[in-house]
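quick one
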Amino acid sequence: MLRSEDVKPQTWAIVGGRPDGNPGAPLNTPLVPASAFVLGGERIYSRNEATEGWESFEALVGGLEGGSAVAFASGMAACAAVLGRLPSGAHLVLGDDCYQGVAGLAQAGARDHGWRVERLPVADPGWVAKAAEADLLWVESPSNPLLDVADVAAICGAPRRPGTRVVVDNTFATPLGQQPLVLGADVVVHSATKFIGGHSDLLLGVAVTADPDELALLRTARGLNGATPGTLECFLALRGARTLPLRLAQASASAAQLVQRLGEHPAVHRVRYPGFGGVVSFELADAAAADRACRSVTVIRHATSLGGVETTMERRNAQPGQEHIPAGLIRMSVGCEDIEDVWRDLEGALRP
Ligand SMILES: Cc1ncc(COP(=O)(O)O)c(C=O)c1O
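structure w/ pyridoxal-5'-phosphate:
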């Protein structure tokens, strides 16, 4: 049986999570829409027991991250399952710029369970010392939407108290950009809705760990909370993940071009880019200028979310909970269209 360690991630994305290679076996895991199974076998009810569809998706993502994956109904369901294990009064360290849903979970934990939530700038070297004090470090890097970069290797490798967990939200970087478990993280989470799925047509999440106890707890939490992924979503995300390396290579190449051209454009005050990946943020003079640009594009779609084959952009400060983001900041998720078409569209939209 081929293992993920035997091949490059680009190859595992294609060959991972397939049925066995016996004569007559299908190349792809069949879609099995069933909530219940005839009793007496391994599977009973598909909220609790993995269907083949999840197992295939989990095998593929687990192999890319270097651990065992647990698929969830959404990225938020994965984040909630990981954070939900924190006891009352726990000390949680979170980036000052992070996905607003996760900040909302932290706020609810502070209110309902007395969590002490400390926010640190994403790139602050102080994260390393916090590993010895806190119960959980939640690292999102690159951050959303300011694209600040944490020293993930230093944080994951820092000495910590027994029981302290480091969790990395790897949604923006993808397992091709960084592999936090290899660096010493305890859990990696993804909104698979984004780059892994890649087509903006599903909601899905995944948590990955190399720790068998954590794995068992995550699976139990998924079943108890009913945060079970849909069979169709797993099928589609698995198909989408096959082209993750290709999509990401195209998106990154186009993003690097756009960063350069935006940097030279007189209407653009600042460009933020972590140096890799498909997300670019740039600042225009004010909210009105950014709204005008977002409403003017035709090749690019004015939409939230990211990681799809299509280029999208939005003014982040217009979203609830994002009031701290500069008013004129546009977050753009670069897709796979021809770069000249995207640039012509963007340049036209930036005209006063
Ligand atoms: C970095 C990050 N983490 C988690 C989530 C939550 O994922 P989902 O929307 O799939 O629930 C998002 C969604 O935008 C995100 O950007």
